[in-house]
Amino acid sequence: MIIIYFSQSGTTKAAAEQLHSVLNVPIYQIEPVKAYPADFSELAEVTKLEVAKQVQPDLKRMAIDLPEDHKIILGFPTWRHQPPMLIERFFAVNDLKGQQIFPFTTSSDDLIGKSLPFLNDWAGQAQATIGNGGTLNSQTEIERFAKEVISVDQD
Ligand SMILES: Cc1cc2nc3c(=O)[nH]c(=O)nc-3n(C[C@H](O)[C@H](O)[C@H](O)COP(=O)(O)O)c2cc1C
């Protein structure tokens, strides 16, 4: 199992690091080639255009191998009620065939359910599957998700 995440302003990163310390599995941050603007209104504009034009931003080359047990925890912020388009890129450029992906998001209020239709679509095209997900906006949810993933891992 591995934790792979994208985080723009650090919240998803903090949740991913907590999972990492509980689960004791490798952790890897995916990054866009071209950094997103730090300014909120510029970022809002860029992300709006990405969705409108269905742009998948390029990612820095992954410096890791995907896990042999085929289990990936994938974290991202919810942007515009869905995963960032960069996550679609992640599905498009990696060989994820047979991987089971446990998604989590951090958000201001949207639950992971908002992102699931997108993830299921992208995973389907990559011949991967989406497993249990979480909205890790609280300590309680981080702990619940960690326990859930541990129990799946022991199946
Ligand atoms: C451009 C942008 C769009 C966002 N859209 C949503 C949204 O649709 N729903 C939501 O609940 N939160 C939304 N948020 C809030 C982020 O999901 C939240 O702050 C998240 O924890 C940021 O994670 P990060 O620090 O790892 O980047 C948005 C934030 C940004 C910057």
TrEMBL record:
Protein name: Flavodoxin-like domain-containing protein
GO molecular function (one): FMN binding
PROSITE patterns, per the entry: FLAVODOXIN_LIKE
A Pfam entry, by short name: Flavodoxin_4
Residues covered by the Flavodoxin-like domain: 1-155
